[in-house]
């Protein structure tokens, strides 16, 4: 079983996405265990405060190091942790290669930032990897964490019923996915390509590869490099 521990000060943001669709199925099958840790539960402050003003002035609040440290240490007492990931806009850009690699890890901690981020000492001494989902800023790291988790869990054997389908997704081989069609074979005089109705699997695979290459060259030529 894979274990994913999420550290957040906004746990309610994670309830719905983590308990629906593929993510719920994976947990029901006991292929993955996802646990949400409310950062406020690890605060030494009597008001359960987890943020403070930044030294040197400036706007915005910063998540304090103490509750984050306390939470991580609590998790480490229960299991050996393979990776401690901080969701950050200036981290490594999330890619299929990264998701493939993380799907092989058994115990992952994901820290969700908030406000102006976290005390820099967290990043210097506690975090092993920083990941970004794009060149933009969100209110917190909860939604990026869900995206990362979804991209990881669907690769765990047994989660997706049709595993070969997951292996043919976009970016798995640095190409965008080929076009797909379903019934009816003709609608509004728009027809499905004849090759897909031929039953010749080798020719179909060659056609799909060709279409993937053409699509990638047109939309994402950078991937071909």
Question: How is this structure best described in words?
Answer:
With 225 residues, this protein is an alpha/beta fold. The chain folds into 2 domains: 2-153, 3-Layer(aba) Sandwich (Alpha/beta knot), CATH 3.40.1280.10; 168-224, Trp Operon Repressor, Chain A (Orthogonal Bundle), CATH 1.10.1270. Helix content is 33%, strand content 20%. The protein has 8 helices and 9 strands. The protein is elongated. The model has no long low-confidence stretch (mean pLDDT 94).
Number of strands: 9
What's the level 1 CATH class of the largest domain? Alpha Beta
User: What is the count of distinct domains?
Assistant: 2
Radius of gyration: 21 Å
The main sheet comes to: 5 strands, parallel
Low-confidence parts: none
Strand content: 15-25%
What's the total helix number?
8
Which geometry do the CA atoms define?
Answer: elongated
Major beta sheet, strand line-up: 2-1-6-5-7
Based on secondary structure, the structural category is: alpha/beta
Judging by the overall fold, what is the CATH architecture of the largest domain?
A: 3-Layer(aba) Sandwich
What is the helical fraction, as a range of percent? 25-40%
- Arithmetic mean pLDDT: 94
Instruction: Name the CATH homologous superfamily of the largest domain.
Output: SPOUT methyltransferase, trefoil knot domain
Oligomer: single chain
CATH topological fold name of the largest domain:
Alpha/beta knot
Terminus-to-terminus distance: 36 Å
């Amino acid at each position: 079983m894979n274990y994913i521990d999420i550290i957040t000060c906004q746990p309610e943001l994670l309830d719905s996405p983590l308990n629906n669709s593929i993510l719920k199925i994976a947990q029901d099958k006991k292929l993955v265990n996802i646990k949400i840790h409310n950062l406020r539960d690890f605060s030494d402050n009597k008001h359960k405060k987890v943020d403070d003003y930044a030294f040197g002035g400036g706007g915005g609040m910063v998540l304090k190091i103490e509750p984050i440290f306390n939470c991580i240490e609590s998790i480490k007492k229960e299991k050996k942790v393979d990776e401690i990931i901080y969701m950050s806009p200036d981290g490594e850009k999330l890619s299929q290669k990264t998701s493939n690699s993380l799907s092989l890890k058994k115990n992952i901690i994901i820290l969700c930032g908030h406000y102006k981020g976290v005390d820099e000492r967290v990043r210097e001494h506690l975090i092993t990897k920083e990941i970004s989902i794009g060149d933009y800023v969100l209110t917190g790291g909860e939604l990026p964490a869900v995206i990362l988790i979804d991209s990881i869990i669907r690769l765990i054997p047994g989660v997706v019923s049709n595993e070969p389908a997951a292996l043919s997704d976009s970016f798995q081989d640095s190409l965008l996915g080929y076009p797909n069609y379903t019934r009816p074979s003709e609608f509004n005089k728009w027809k499905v390509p004849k090759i897909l109705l031929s039953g010749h699997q080798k020719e179909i695979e060659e056609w799909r590869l060709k279409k993937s290459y053409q699509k990638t060259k047109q939309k994402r030529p950078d991937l071909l490099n």
